[in-house]
Amino acid sequence: MIEKELGRTGERVPAIGLGTWQLGGEQAVEALVEGVKAGAWLIDTAEAYGTEGLVGQALKKLKDQGVNVFLATKVSPSHFHHDDVIRSCEASLSRLGVKTIDLYQLHWPNHSIPIAETMGAMEELVEAGKIRYIGVSNFSSKELDEARASLKREDVVSDQVKYSPFDRHVEPDLFPYCEKEGITVIAYSPLEHGRALSNPLLGGKVAEIAAKYGKSPVQVLLNWVISKPRVIAIPKASSVGHALEDAGAGNFSLAPADLEALDAALGGR
Ligand code: NAP
Question: How far is Cα 130 from Cα 216, in angstroms, rounded to an integer?
């Protein structure tokens, strides 16, 4: 699995992790367990998803097998007042069955609550050892900059945003900022919530390139996402088969000529 530095922490995370929004079904826990064991050892959830309990079950199984996971979850914007952040974190820790969350993210900006108040609580959580790193989600470069300026000791290590071969809206503004400032971009809905799979390109140029590498079209799409500097991706998979396929997207690199051919087929931004 390709690994990338998280922010400027010196710590490395896998380029492919596992998302859990709307994760459910018979194989959900097993899909997480097997996906992690296949190399996608980062799991992303949120208090809003209702999947922290399920993630907790997977974490327990993995711990019993001695497998390490980088755990990311999120606090909802309605809980950005100081005491609510602390309460939300405690509740997530309890649902997840862990003592520490690796990455705690502000799920969306909330302009009605001063960011300094929210970030003050986040820094207290770091100091108390309840969370290790602070991240944000759905923040523009301007919002990210303001969030960072309101921190006293810590820095924001990541911004989780929607990004896929078919939705490149964050490229002009956020990507240059994150590259310059050393902030990890966590690409969510990298398969367009499943819609990418019915794009005609998957049977055309993408399939052609995939065949060259002995990979599937889905793996090529995900690999294209993580070919971008500082970007990691968190596809969601409900079955073991999908989870293994997604994890297998992170153990090869598309050659520059193939990336260019893909870019041309995708039609740029
Ligand atoms: P996604 O990962 O783009 O797509 C998920 C869909 O793709 C599911 O229908 C899944 O099917 C299918 N899929 C996955 N792997 C596949 C494979 N190998 N072959 C065929 N189909 C495959 O969508 P997403 O869930 O919207 O985004 C991923 C994660 O990003 C979320 O789970 C969540 O953790 C995060 N997210 C964050 C935010 C935010 O505001 N921060 C917003 C949205 C999402 P099955 O389920 O049947 O396997």
Answer: 39
pLDDT digits (tens, 9 = 90+) for 139-167: 999 999 999 999 999 999 999 999 999 99
User: For residues 16 and 40, is the Cβ–Cβ distance under 8 A?
Assistant: yes
**What CA–CA distances, in Å, run from 198 to 57, 173, 203, 204?**
32, 28, 9, 12
Whole-prediction pTM value?
Answer: 0.98
Q: What is the 133 CA–ligand 1 centroid distance (Å)? A: 24
Distance from residue 192's CA to the centre of ligand 1 (Å): 7
Q: The CATH number of 3-197+217-252 is which of 3.20.20.100, 2.40.50.140, 2.60.120.260, 3.40.50.150? A: 3.20.20.100
pLDDT, tens digit (0-9, with 9 covering 90-100), for 197-256:
999 888 889 999 999 999 999 999 999 999 999 999 999 999 999 999 999 999 999 999
Kindly list the protein residues whose Cβ atom lies closer than 6 A to any atom of ligand 1: 19-21, 44, 107, 137-138, 160, 188-194, 197, 218, 234-239, 242, 245-246
